[in-house]
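Researcher: Sequence recovery benchmark, item below. Answer with residues only.
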């Protein structure tokens, strides 16, 4: 027999929700303050173990700064700044390459065609026969974004 003092409100709600949904609140924040405090202490101890000098006030200040809602204008401005930063970094990468490097990066069209053919065969094989479909799709997507995207851009130019 379970003593009732040990049964949490969360457990009771989880039990009653399927049986009588109207009697259970959708959100229960009981004990949230203790949980938040425990999380702050965990972040501080993890940061200290990594050699950072962090205390509870630092974490709470960071949470407070990030908890304020941004207006639409502020979000648009932030998005614009991020785009500008990305453009600058891409421009500096492109302009930083030597002409010699650019010439050595010319890829024959036949090699590109072979690479695309091999990649399509390999990705199709993995999708058809690998048991973990989710992992395969994720891996293919990452490879497409990080590797093949470069070759597609080269082919277009």
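Model:
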């Amino acid at each position: 027999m379970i003593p009732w003092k040990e049964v949490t409100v969360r457990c009771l709600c989880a039990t009653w929700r399927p049986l009588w949904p109207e009697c259970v609140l959708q959100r229960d924040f009981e004990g949230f303050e203790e949980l938040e405090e425990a999380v702050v202490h965990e972040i501080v101890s993890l940061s200290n173990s990594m050699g950072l000098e962090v205390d509870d006030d630092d974490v709470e200040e960071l949470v407070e700064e990030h908890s304020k809602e941004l207006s639409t204008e502020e979000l648009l401005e932030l998005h614009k700044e991020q785009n500008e930063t990305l453009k600058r970094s891409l421009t500096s990468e492109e302009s930083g390459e030597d002409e010699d490097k650019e010439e050595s990066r010319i890829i024959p069209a036949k090699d590109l065609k072979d690479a695309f053919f091999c990649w399509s065969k390999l990705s199709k094989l993995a999708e058809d026969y690998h048991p973990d479909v989710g992992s395969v799709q994720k891996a293919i997507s990452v490879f497409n974004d990080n590797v093949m995207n470069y070759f597609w851009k080269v082919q277009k130019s």
